[in-house]
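Hello again,

I reread your note about wanting to compare the complex against the isolated chains. To keep things tidy I'm splitting this into two emails, and this first one only covers the full assembly. Below are the input lines as submitted, including protein chains and any nucleic acid or small-molecule components. They are followed by the predicted structure of everything together. The single-chain runs will come separately.
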Amino acid sequence: MSEITSLTITELQAGIRTGEFSAREVAESYNAAVAAARALNAYTVETPDDALACAKVADKARAAGEELAPLAGIPLGIKDLFATRGVDTTAGSRILKGFHPPYESTVTGNLRKAGAGMLGKLNMDEFAMGSSNETSAYGPVISPWRRKDGSNSAITPGGSSGGSAAAVAASIAPGVTGTDTGGSIRQPAAFTGITGIKPTYGRCSRWGIVSFASSLDQAGPMARTVRDCAILLEAMAGFDPKDSTSLDLPVPKCEAGLSSDLNGKRIGIPKEYRIDSVPAEINALWDRGLDWLRDAGAEPVEISLPHTKYALPTYYIIAPAEASSNLARYDGVRYGLRVEGEHTLNDMYEATRAAGFGAEVKRRIMIGTYVLSAGFYDAYFTKAQKVRALIKQDFAQAFRQCDVILTPTAPSAAFGIGETTDPLAMYLNDVFAVPASLAGLPAMSVPGGLDAQGLPLGLHLIGNELDEQTVLNAGLAIEERAGFSARPEKWW
Amino acid sequence: MSVSAEQVRHIANLARLAMSEEEIQRLVPELNNILGWVEQLGEVNTDGVEPLATVVEQKLRLREDKVTDGDCRDEVLANAPVAEHGFFAVPKVIE
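Full-complex prediction:
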């Protein structure tokens, strides 16, 4: 039974349909694997009964000869940012302790409609603010990967979707949901040797996802293969009248459209992404990635994205500003934590928020409040929105010359827990991921190889607006050629 | 531009975050570091550039003016730290 957890979603679908194994066996295998992997701290809540109930529906449908839903009997891990009816939804924060949403997020609802069950909720950086999972109120997720140096020191899975990434890498979920505001799907996917895609802003409904920065937040799937990501994305995406920024477009047939034949496609290589401080092995992998795409029939083109260096500072004005506004709702009145203040209602607000938010969240609320405050709004926030317009324009111009852009996903491999303590140094993790977020573009990370320490490195593909298909196809071409089969050795 | 301890206290108050003097003192250099770094945006010429608020151009939709999600008071109140008589309850605001 243990080998069930090493199968891809595509293989699970086939196995359940042919009767090679039952959906119940799939759920039981995963429930057991989840319970045996608590040392990773990947799940904040386990919901084995949910996975079993969904399996029962799938097995019953098959026995009755009915047509199975696309994800019938596939149990998934759900990032703790998604509202799940009646199940703890805390965004990795103390301030949402005990919150049981009376509703289901549109994305998880879509996955349920497609037949999927839930293995549990996945740990994450508090309110998705972090790149290492260390800001979680539940403590950091430990990556299943370890350096080859024999030290056994704990490595971060990246963040903010760190629990999601670790779960897929450790085979305690065949696929998971993530969210990406400035790299939170792609950087952890790269750090853990898995695949993850952030679709075009508006493809997946934000309804029922705890808000961080509303103009940037976007849900997406993380899984072992490009095909699995395509299957999950199709199930998650779709127009939702309950989200005013949801795109009223048909869901693209991502899986049926998969093809690694890139003849006629032009691959943009942005010269501004060649940074001296990035380890040579990462730039070498980037070159290898281009060779793989060339081998698939594509033609390389050098492009320029002149405002690249301003993307991170722009992001660190816009995202905290939106966050400070979104997080104003946590006031100890309607849900979550309340700490009684000394006297007044205002004391209660201040005491609740002081006790409920962690240090990084407070830092960002402070920055956001400052850049939105009277006298500073234009100098910071409006200025950042203007630079954001220029960054988007850079991409629009680049996509006149190319069809998809290739870069490294992150400027380093995974680092050790506790190794990066300076907030600014932590922010630099997303230097390659943030520009696509600011422009709302689809982007994905696929594993490319291991570094000298034995840790995974990812390649990053950025596509034009609404063109998830070319991103997935280029990802597939890399996947077929990289032959990345390394798995973390089980120590947990 | 750099922020002073007094400004940090003012921002903490705007953000409704109770903070000890020690926290304020720690945040002053941290915030100045981050603000100093984001100020490099000043180098960018943005004359005549419209600020971008939404990345994907779309018209805001209108919906029918009708309640679609009501009759769930108790479900909503179930998450409140304190609820009384069918309302959210807060510390007394009027003496």
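For quick reference: Chain A touches chain B through 72 residues (CB under 8 Å).

B.
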